[in-house]
Design goal:
The chain contains ten helices and 30 strands. The protein is α+β, with helices and mostly antiparallel strands. It folds into four domains: 120 residues, Immunoglobulins (Immunoglobulin-like); 136 residues; 114 residues, Immunoglobulin-like; 112 residues.
């Protein structure tokens, strides 16, 4: 009987001890407006909780936390203990949002808190307490998106600026981007911001200060409604507390607050079909066409450079330069593509500068050669019409060298040789000797000479060498993976040759590196230049079965090229970027 009583007491004691361990979720309110915040507290009432894991907070932004606190007290000899983890969260959408369970380990077991549901309704009017920091920040700080043209044509550049306006009542000490737009459907180029430039301006008719936190030039790649996703930034704002110090100066308090722009819709118009030239290849802007040579007179086998250049403002990186046709007597090498472009705060119409292809031509025969004119068409969005440009013909005079062979010479295979008649005469054979005289030679004979024995032994020495070389060549031919790597490495060196020449010159190097990556994709995937956007690259490479990691590395190199042009870069960093690009091309080539 005593044993039963003791066992029952012990069982109830242990059960009550376990029942006393509680891990709960508490929230400051069950219903809130979209523009309000919520405090969430996860509390365990026993000491020893470890490895706390919060929920994902799906549907909310975490504004603050976690902050940890411990409470312990003794009341009438009874100990009370609580350990809490507190978050401040803000909803990003309306509806019944569920906060899932948090987890914590206690004495080797994993405990879960209770899940809670919060009703999020339309934004409500905030209390207009002049001393409330949130109210002061909302009334005095505004993040705006400014777009130069919300209804551009396909290929027409627009200028996007994100401005932060703040009144003289508050101060901004720091900002940090939390979300950046992806610009889906646009080619984009960020504009370098050397430093924060504070200016005075108007916001909704009132005096404000402002500065630009981000500027970009965007070129739409397709027609229709394209969205500029919101940009979100966290700010450190100094707000007045309504109190003053001993000398009467206002006391300020720094708070951290997030601001987000509204989504903007850009309505992109398609290019008109009326008047569209047959040779139009997507150039949009205002351009000039020039074709010229470094020499107009040269000798046979002497080289000259022929340049086809397009200059002006517009989508200069997104179309192909027209190619030339030369007479077959002129040897023409693959052109070298060069770009000299600038993107500034005035780049509303896109990029400005020049792009050109430079050909090396080498004549083989003397004569005059005509290089036909080339044509180039573009659409001017300001005038809303197409223009066609035609270059002048180029004449190359070759002053010295072999004569151009005639048709009969080509048929007989005697190019450049004139046939002559053979004239017989009675003296034609007068120098033929009819008598001979033997004269003994004192020179050493070839037989049994040093040369004789050398030539006799040489084949025996060459046989093992030939066998060794043949064996190595056979091994190399059977090494399929090695051959792939060598082929890919050779291809990478080919496309990256210009970038290697520019090592040490920051801007020229990164322009050449970016162009090499684009040229590789255009050659490998057979796509037009106008299709080479980052989104398009990811889509095409994904369809080709390229591993996502390789695709992301490729995009990362392109992003590095854009960023590094405007950031301090050392020669070591450029060499590392070059090696990375070479490795990426090799990986892509093996997978494609």
């Amino acid at each position: 009987m005593k044993f039963r009583i003791t066992y029952t007491i012990l069982f109830l004691t242990i059960q009550s001890l376990f029942a006393q361990v509680e891990f709960k979720t508490k929230i400051s309110k069950n219903k809130l407006g979209l523009n309000q915040r919520l405090r969430v507290e996860f509390t365990i009432n026993k000491q020893g909780g470890d490895n706390f894991t919060p929920p994902s907070f799906r549907g909310f932004d975490v504004v603050g936390g976690p902050s940890q606190s411990v409470n312990q007290s003794w009341i009438n000899g009874k100990s009370n203990y609580s350990q809490s983890y507190t978050y401040i969260i803000s909803p990003i959408k309306k509806g019944n949002l569920r906060i899932q369970s948090a987890k914590i380990e206690y004495e080797g077991k994993t405990l879960k808190s209770n899940a809670v549901t919060v009703a999020v309704v339309d934004p409500i009017e905030l209390p207009k307490d002049p001393n409330d920091p949130d109210y002061i920040a909302n009334q005095n700080v505004h993040l705006e998106t400014l777009v130069s043209n919300e209804n551009p044509f396909v290929g027409e550049g627009i200028y996007v600026e994100y401005r932060l306006y703040f009144s003289h009542n508050v101060a901004i000490s720091d900002f940090d981007f939390k979300e950046l737009p992806q610009y889906e459907g646009f080619w984009n180029q960020d504009i370098k911001l050397d430093q924060i430039s504070l200016k005075n301006g108007k916001y909704q008719g009132e005096d404000y200060r402002y500065f630009s936190i981000k500027k970009s030039v965007l070129i739409p790649q397709k027609s229709g409604n394209l969205s500029l996703e919101p940009i979100k930034t966290d700010l450190i704002i100094g707000v007045p507390t309504g109190r003053g110090d001993f000398f009467g100066n206002p006391i300020t308090r720094n708070i951290r607050k997030s601001f987000r722009t509204f989504k903007k819709t850009i309505k992109v118009k398609p290019l008109p079909l009326t008047g569209k030239p047959a040779n139009f290849i997507g150039a949009v802007g205002d351009f000039k066409l020039e074709v010229g040579t470094s020499k107009t007179a040269l000798k046979a086998n002497e080289s000259a450079q022929l340049k086809v250049k397009v200059s002006g403002r517009g989508n200069l990186k997104l179309f192909e330069i027209p190619s030339i046709k030369t007479p077959k007597e002129l040897e023409v090498y693959t052109p070298e593509h060069r770009e000299n472009l600038k993107t500034t705060a005035r780049g509303i119409k896109g990029l400005r500068g020049e792009v050109y292809d430079q050909y090396t031509i080498v004549p083989a025969y003397k004569g005059k050669y005509k290089i036909p004119s080339v044509s180039f068409s573009y659409f001017n969005p300001k005038e809303k019409k197409y223009h066609s440009l035609v270059s002048d013909e180029v004449i190359v005079s070759v002053l010295e060298g072999k004569e151009l062979p005639t048709n009969s010479d080509r048929i007989l295979g005697n190019e450049g040789v004139q046939k002559q008649k053979v004239v017989a005469s009675r003296n034609s054979f007068r120098y033929v000797q009819t008598k001979t005289q033997f004269v003994a030679s004192m020179e050493e004979g070839f037989f049994q000479s040093k040369r004789y024995y050398l030539f006799l032994i040489l084949p025996l020495l060459l046989i093992p060498i030939v066998m060794f070389v043949g064996k190595k060549q056979k091994q190399r031919a059977n090494d399929l993976m090695g051959n792939r790597i060598r082929k890919a490495d050779k291809l990478a060196r080919k496309y990256l040759s210009q970038a290697k020449k520019e090592l040490g010159k920051k801007e020229a190097f990164y322009i050449a590196l970016e162009k090499a990556l684009h040229n590789y994709l255009k050659a490998k995937l057979q796509v037009e230049a106008s299709d080479i956007s980052k989104d398009k690259i990811v889509k095409i490479l994904g369809e080709k079965g390229v591993f996502p990691g390789v695709v992301s590395d490729f995009i990362q190199v392109l992003d590095d090229c854009d960023f590094a042009r405007y950031a301090p870069v050392t020669d070591v960093m450029m060499n590392e970027e070059f090696d990375k690009a070479k490795e990426i091309i090799a990986k892509l080539d093996k997978q494609l």
